Amino acid sequence: MSEPLTIGNISVLPGEVKRGGIPVGRDICGNERAIPVTVFRGARDGPILWLNGATHGDEPEGPFSIFLATQQLDPAELRGTVVAVPVLNVGAFAAGTRGDPLDTFSYDMNRLYPGRPDGYPTERIAFAHWQAMKDRCDLQIAIHSGGEHSYLAHMIFSADNPASWELAAAMGPRWTLVFRGGAGGGNPGSMVGRPGEGGVTGGVGGECRGLGRGGPWCSVAGPAAVTRVRWLAASVRGVSLWSWAVTAGC
Ligand SMILES: [Zn+2]
User: Fold this and answer.
1) What spacing in Å lies between the alpha carbon of 61 and ligand 1's midpoint?
2) CA spacing 20 to 30 A to 220: which of 3, 114, 115, 143?
C-alpha cells in the first residue's frame, strides 16, 4: 500500500482529495495562520505538480485559473498528484494589493524565496511554503498577471533546465514568449528549478481586470437554446465565481 503524502496539516492517500493548510505561525493577535491547500492525489503514482496562485495579491487570474483547472480533476483518472495553492499570499489577496499591507519590509513575495523562518511575515510565509514544497514537487507552475500596474503579454519565465523547458513547451502554442531565467530569482519557479525539476512562472495578462469587478463573461452555445454565464467578482475581498446555465425552452 502506498504511503500517505503529507503536505501541511493533511495526509493524502492515492485516489483522495483533501483540503487543509500549510501552517505559517501566528499573527499579531495570536491567531493561527495557514496557506490554504487542496491535494488531488491520483489513483496511480506519478509526478507531483504544484499550482501556485496569488503570490501577488492583486493578481486574481491565478486563483481563478486554479479553481477552473481543478474542477476538472478526477483522482480516479489521474496519474500523479496536483497540489493546488490558489492563494499563497493570503494577507495581500484579502487586501487586493501586490504585497501584504501589514508587511512593508518584505512586500514582494516573489523576490525573497526561500524566505526565512525568523524573518518578516511575508518571508515566513515563503519559508513555510518552500519547506512544504521542496521535497514533494516535480513540477511547479506559478500563475501571475499584470496586477494593478501593467498588462502582460502571455509569457513564461522558465528556470534554465530541460525539465522546465519541457514544462514551458507543454503549456501550448499560445505561449510563444518564453524567457529563460537564472537560478537566483528568489521566486518559487527558480527555486524548484535549481535541482533540475521543472519550474515556470506564467503571466496571463490582465484578463480579470478586463472582465471587471463583477462583470459578466458570457458565451452562447447552440441556437440560443442554452446560455452559459459565468461571473467573476475580483474585488478587494477575493474571488467569487458563479456559473450557471439557462435553457431558453425553444
Ligand atoms: Zn505577480
Assistant:
1) 10
2) 143
pLDDT digits (tens, 9 = 90+) for 147-189: 877 777 778 888 888 888 888 888 888 887 888 775 567 888 8
Q: Are residues 24 and 133 in the same domain?
A: yes
How far is it, in rounded angstroms, from Cα 37 to Cα 234?
20
Q: What are phi and psi of 247, to 5 degrees?
A: -100, 125
d(CA 130, CA 134): 6
Ligand 1 center to 88 CA (angstroms): 11
CA 104 to ligand 1 center in whole angstroms: 17
User: Based on the domain organization, do 230 and 119 belong to the same domain?
Assistant: no
- Cα–ligand 1 centroid distance for 171 (angstroms): 18
Range of the domain at 46: 5-210
pLDDT in tens, 41-82: 999 999 999 999 999 998 888 898 899 899 999 999 999 999
What is the tally of structural domains in the chain? 2
User: What separation in Å is there between the alpha carbon of 97 and the centre of ligand 1?
Assistant: 11
